[in-house]
Amino acid sequence: MGAAIQLPFVEHTVPSAASSDDRESQSGALDWQGTTLSFEVHGNQMHHSIWSLGHRFGEAQHPGPHQSLVLGCTNGGLRNKEALAVAQGPGIWTYSETHLSSITQVSSGKALKHAARQENRLLRPFFSAPAPLRSRSDWAGTWTGVVCTSDFCSKQLQVEWPPDLWNSGRVLATQHQIGTHSITVVSLYGLPRGPTWPRAATIMNDILAFISKTFVFGHSGLVAICGDFNFSPHELEHFNIWRSAGWCSAQELATTRWDHVWTPTCKGATERDIIWLSPAAASLCTGLHIEDVFCDHSSISVTLDLAEAPTTVLTWPRPQEINWEQVDVAGWHAHCSDCTMEVDPDSTVHMTNFAQHFENSLNGYVGQPGSDLQSAQKGRSKRLKPAKQTLQPTTCRASRPGEVALTQDLVGTAVLQWFRQLRRIQSYCHSIKAGRLHNEAVVYRAELWTSIKRASGFQHGFAYWWDQQEFFHAVGPLPLHPPGAAIAKRIYEAFHHAFRAFERWHLAQKNRLIQTKYEKATQAIFKDLRDPSPDQIDSLWTSKAYQVIAVREESKAVLLDDGIRPLPGSTWYHNGCGLTVDGYIDEMLVFKHLPLTSDVGFAEGDPLSVPAMAILDWALHVYQSQYAPLTRTMSFVDNISMLSRQVMTLVWAFFSLHAFLELWGLEIDLDKSYSWSTTPQTRAQLAPLGLRVVEDVSELGGSLTFSSAARVRIFLKRGAKLEQKWARLRISKAPLAQKLMVLPMVFWASALHGALGCIFAESHLHHLRKKAVAALGLKTGGSNPLLRLTLAQPHTADPGFYHLRHCIFDFRRICSKTPDLTVQWRQFMRLYSGRKLPGPFYKIVELFSQIGWSIVVPPFFTDHDGFVHNLYDVPNSTLDALLFDAWLQHVAVQVQHRRTMHDLCGIDPELTLLDRAHMTALELGRTMALQCGAFLSDWHQAKFDPAKQQICQLCLVPNTQRHWFVCPHFDNVRTEIMEPFNWISEIPDCTVSHLLVPRNPYAVEFKSYFLSLEDATGSFHSEPGEGLQNLFSDGSFFPGIPKIAGVGAWSLVNATSGQVIGAGPLHGLTQSIARAELCGALAAIKWVAHFQTMACLWCDSKHVVDGLQALLDGRWTTQDSICENHDLWQQAEAMLADIPDGHFQVNWTPSHLDFVQCESTWEEWLATWNAIADSLAVSVNEARSYEYNDLQYKAQQRSALWSERLRLIRKFFWTVADSKARDEEVIDLTASEVRQSLGNPLTWRGRSETRDIGGDCTACTCLLCMAATQSSP
């Protein structure tokens, strides 16, 4: 552990081609090792005056005398907080959502440097693109911006960001040089979810895709990606991709190494501020530090010990691959046809000579600068021992004003060598142009010209390379002595042109390779499941076009503009249609039928074919409305349907359609057309039409049934078609997490497409479930596929839950867009007699009954706990939670027949999935093996394995898992974990044997409490005064333990009159800060609409303000999609429609403004009334009834007790599994899961060492080895 040394700026400069003058100024490299580096991510809005006590892990518990290098991100304005930022200590810090515009960036940068100088520090701030100005300010920026500060030699990396991404002010990349070590830091501020960014997750994945390509797959070494992502470490798919590449988040790393307990970083509830470390950076991590320094967001830091980082490594360099697409293969083959070489008796020498001969033979045939292979592409069969490589910075120093700059800093070594040479030549041009003749200047130019001629990176030296270039004859040879200004300028221009060409080629090749690596990481599982590509073309067609000059109708002949020279087997076409030709004479072509009935149209595949067909459909509707008014005609591009209650009217409409199509020269495709009817008599009457009469058919991917019988043969075929994909999934090398992810995306989406209208047996889903478990390699003795997939991530990996969730969400979405369906649904329920009928209405009845729900009067239904809900108004998150909770209770009923699960009365998802996101791969594999019901003890395995004994040899009682906790043989285990397990008899068998926790007994009481709360947004305590009323709304949310105990509240105050308008607890099952903020704004809208007054609402919730502004401007409507809290947004939209234009305004105000730091009375006014609204919301949220407080206390006590005991039971099992007792038997519990992730099963006596591979814990599963029998000590 070294000390952080404060040195002058020049002593930290990146090694470069420095001149003698530069070296005298100490601008060269400084060999500096032993420094300890610490990154810190920091999110906040306002700071506390005193640093509160945090938690240190690893070596962070003993910081020592050295200073840490800190990387932090602050979720709040940086202006006027520069002193606090500097006071956090030297190192690297990043700040998110700085609100710094182009104006305040300058002042903030100066303030940062000034505060650092007071501590004898030289701070270097770097800014992202400035935030746009707010609409009501001429200096304050909007809610974006990223800043990075560093106490070390640093530079901002030149990266080809997408323009929209860079201009958003949400990204920044910097590089910091510490001795011989280069550290790249990417700072990011993620998009917040809400009406402002309805596609936040999609856009964030696009942003992370670019960062993944550039820094995860395109860059190596010490790299950190940090910031306020506005998403947890498991919410975005690219986080799993980073894990698969060896990256890990700071808290996950600390959990693995130091048993760190996961800590929320955002408002005490979620983890939004994250440090992602590359494998190299993670290997040097020695500690984690989390502190509550700022409001709302905690500070998280990691310490990297650079003294452990190697300065030299042994490598086996491999030549870069040859891009054969750029090689003139034909010319190269012709050149090699006459090549010969002697065979050396020494095979090693012969191989070396052959490889060199092969590489030299490509000279002149490669489509890249120089037409030869680059030096990095050579060297095959030359190396017989590893090379010792000294680690050097991967970039050079930043270009100064007036100096040439790289297009992108993250380039290869060869480009950097050329770029340094370009800088040397440019420096020489500047020096010779200055014309100074004193001795120092002359010596400088002589030394510089010598370094130019001796520059590395050019085959056989720079002079030889120069002579081989195309511009050699125009510019001339390279002078032996320092040239004059005119010649130096020509040399610079020529080499500059060659460098740019080489740089473009290098970046193109690098981007191609990075894209390949990225696609391999992201699309590997999908490529494994994809059908083989079709056979390649094995024949070529030649064609010739002719222009029709004249037509002779009586002889059915046409005159062409050129002589006819047809080839054998040729075919004639006109407007894409094949023609029958009777013969030809010179330019005369004779047809059996003259084809020129029309010379206009759009071939299939033409972009205009769809609008052309739409126009034709419109004409058909007009035509049929006149000639077949009793038939309902429907069209979808080239699909036409006609419905009628009478057969004869339908027959008349069919012939009318036939006549219409004849007008356009079109025909009905009889092979694809069909007719149907619901009765046998009418089906017989339709037969003479010549169309297929069907009872079920596949249409637009779905399965349609046209009779009262439930026909599912077509639907079931969809599942049968997955056999090849199951086989590909089985042999795929993708991690288990990706395989589970593609189950709903690929398999269930295909097998269950159109399931909303089909009635099929539960056995079909069970068959799909068993297929999935077998293909994933998760079949183990006693394991239940239903439990295994339901408790996996995602939960829709189980086909049953996927089927339930998607059918109900799709049905609700369709009903919201088609109001007539509600009327039809109600009519169906009035006439419903219990008979199975195909269609969505009975499907909903069937699905509801499966999970204990029932339909009252559509759209109202009763859930499994007896509470009534409106299907259309339930928020997305609430409906999702209700469905999953009901599904878990259904799963518990399905497995209660098992002896060890007889007391599983429902499933508590929070406790059953406890610590799931923070488990190591080994712990997760063991947990999932237990929870899916795998046989563990001899008591169960003896039923099918005669070698096992059901009775404990020490205690002479059944040798079950419950007995292990009291058996004397495991006294050492209980002693090791310091727990006697005296309470084990109180724990249900399902928990002791399978870690499955029965449902929370207080869940129903919490639901009853929240649903009984009244909506107080329409109750007002005061009336408006005269003039414009300034209103302040706010929300409050207290996270609960368990999560169902979390509560929210809202408030609304009138700053103009100084009165409270309203306040109340958040009603409904959905309790969140977003809903609380929206309720406060909704109360303001109702107040303005009720009193018809003019008001301006001030709210500190950005997504609420942006959503209301979008409604006011007409840029968004709630009918576009069912967004989160759509019930409240629909109320807001309806109320805003009743308010006259201009009577209601909405503005955003920062939350928790520090009154002392306000610079004007206006800011003080905002801070005062926002604090009043906030305090009112908090006080209302705290003023809960005695019944709730008692319920919350009992639920919290239960959650804490069960959490502690669950962790102890898990620890007991894991300690038993890790024991090395020789006489204990080994039970291979989940060998198939281990075989998939580790390649071979682990044994009790000789267990392979496993390491935490990082990433999503479901990425791989491991073996659980348990001691099941005992022998006498």
UniProtKB/TrEMBL annotation:
Region described as Disordered: spans on this chain: 370-389
GO terms for MF: nucleic acid binding; RNA-directed DNA polymerase activity; RNA-DNA hybrid ribonuclease activity
Superkingdom of this protein's organism: Eukaryota
Presence of keyword Metal-binding: no
Keyword Nucleotidyltransferase: yes
Chain ranges of the RNase H type-1 domain: 1025-1182
PROSITE patterns in UniProt: RNASE_H_1
Protein name: Reverse transcriptase domain-containing protein
Species the sequence originates in: Cladocopium goreaui
